[in-house]
Backbone:
């Protein structure tokens, strides 16, 4: 939606503009570089070659879609918009089905499974989960991006987030160094909860999908009725 | 016609949006706000919010990685 005043300003600005350099050669060079590394990996380490490709595809998707975990949890409260939160719920919806297929196959192959044999990040849940989530959430909103968001923005040349990267590295380093302490204090004492153990694989899939769908409709309804910032 | 300029370079989400809506509060209908930013997330952010509020909005890239967002207060 635009107006005549804005069109006029844009026209003036476009006249003042210097001609921009062509970025296509860089794109071709980078693509060639990616392909070379990929071919090298297929030769030496097949596993790394798929990591390399999936990583790049995730990066492109995140950059082009402006997907941002930070905004998805902040915007509903700050500006009453849930379009990114809905995107996250949809992503969870899809990955629930994907993980169901993977875990179903794993359980079929090995009916007497132990919890840590199941593919996916099944970790103990307890007070440390909540504590870590609050800390991460505060840090993410102050820094203006979660881990992946910060990396994507540094990649596209947003200078401010280089400062965040320094803090990010210090935090990861300290976390990895002191993990044993936290593990002994909290993590190892908590239990791993795996729903299919209690109610079966199919019912837990159904339950999770129903809950996600409910959250999606609540988020949609919230977006339509909310204009929190209009009164500030 | 009066214009207001806001410098939001190096400001992370959601600061540009918050600055914009504070400034819009003070402005009269028909006045234009020009937001200068290098954070393209805040473009999505500001554009979505402004459209929802019913103001006029558009933006252009003025050099590599720098944008100007134009908002005309409509109500």
Residues:
């Amino acid at each position: 939606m635009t107006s005549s005043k804005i069109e006029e300003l844009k026209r003036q600005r476009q006249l003042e503009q210097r001609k921009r350099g062509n970025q296509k050669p860089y794109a071709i060079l980078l693509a060639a570089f990616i392909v070379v590394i990929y071919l090298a990996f297929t030769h030496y380490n097949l596993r790394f070659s798929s990591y390399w490709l999936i990583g790049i595809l995730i990066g492109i998707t995140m950059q082009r879609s402006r997907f941002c975990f930070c905004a998805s949890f902040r915007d509903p409260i700050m500006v009453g918009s849930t379009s990114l939160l809905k995107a996250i719920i949809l992503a969870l919806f899809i990955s629930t089905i994907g993980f169901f297929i993977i875990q179903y196959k794993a359980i079929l192959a090995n009916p007497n499974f132990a919890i840590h044999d199941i593919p996916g990040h099944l970790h103990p849940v307890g007070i440390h989960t909540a504590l870590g989530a609050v800390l991460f959430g505060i840090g993410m909103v102050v820094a203006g991006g979660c881990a992946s968001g910060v990396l994507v923005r540094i990649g596209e040349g947003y200078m401010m987030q280089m400062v965040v990267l320094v803090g990010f590295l210090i935090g990861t380093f300290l976390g990895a160094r002191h993990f044993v302490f936290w593990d002994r204090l909290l993590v190892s004492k908590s239990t791993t909860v795996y729903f299919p153990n209690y109610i079966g694989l199919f019912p837990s899939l159904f339950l999770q999908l129903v809950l996600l769908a409910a959250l999606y409709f609540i988020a949609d309804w919230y977006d339509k009725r909310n204009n929190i910032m209009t009164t500030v | 016609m009066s214009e207001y300029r806001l410098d939001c370079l190096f400001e992370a989400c959601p600061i540009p949006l918050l600055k914009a809506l504070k400034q819009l509060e003070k402005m009269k209908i028909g006045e234009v706000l020009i937001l200068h930013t290098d954070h393209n997330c805040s473009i999505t952010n500001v554009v979505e919010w402004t459209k929802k509020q019913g103001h006029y909005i558009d933006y252009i890239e003025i050099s590599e990685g720098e944008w100007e967002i134009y908002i005309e207060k409509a109500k």
